[in-house]
Amino acid sequence: MGSRGRFIELGRMAMADYDRSKKRMLRCGPNPRRPRWYVPPESINGVHTITFDANYWKSIAAARLTQDRETPGRWTLWGNHRTDHGAYADHLAAEEAIERSEKGLTGIIWQKKPKRENHWFDTFVGCVVAALVKGIQLPGFAMPTRKAPVKKKPQSPQTGPTLRSPKGHRSFWVTAR
Predict the structure, then answer these.
(1) How confident is the model over 28-64, as pLDDT tens digits?
(2) pTM tops 0.85, yes or no
(3) Residue numbers of the chain with a pLDDT score lower than 50
(4) By C-alpha distance, which of 103, 124, 117 is closest to 52?
(5) DSSP 166
(6) Going by DSSP bridges, is the β-strand pair 95-102/2-6 parallel, antiparallel, or unpaired?
(7) Where are the beta strands (DSSP E) in 30-75?
(8) Which of 12, 112, 118, 161 sits at 20 to 30 Å (Cα–Cα) from 147?
(9) φ and ψ at 44, to 5 degrees?
(10) Residue 152 CA to chain centroid, in angstroms?
């Protein structure tokens, strides 16, 4: 399955406002009421292409890469970043997030820095979307479910909350090995 990042300008129709009928979209997610990716019914030689909101997913990927070391769900590269991953790290840092306001809306727009290569960053963002489409759960990124709500047991003030992974939870990490 191929993928295509779509630049959605401020003030133009957001993906959440697209026609989400089966006639226009085979699947959409991660939240069907406010999609950030979709699969249109059209295909080329039987191969469908995922279209995703590039600015949103670049923000998600960059946030994961810039989290504090001790934060659960952070993404890191193994070894010495300059020695082992110099070119890859340059691609990951080749774009910058710029806050823009247009037509009464404020949003984050990602722009490529001059004379920098960003192909691996774009590919990395496409891999993040592909992981979610295939059902891989990102730590700290709640995927909507259709299960009935579960009643919570009151917590004991002495013990506090207990951290547990939900059933079927799969961790997600990125390495460049």
Answers:
(1) 888 878 888 888 888 888 888 888 999 999 998 888 8
(2) no
(3) 144-148, 156-177
(4) 124
(5) P
(6) unpaired
(7) 37-39, 49-53
(8) 161
(9) -115, 115
(10) 29
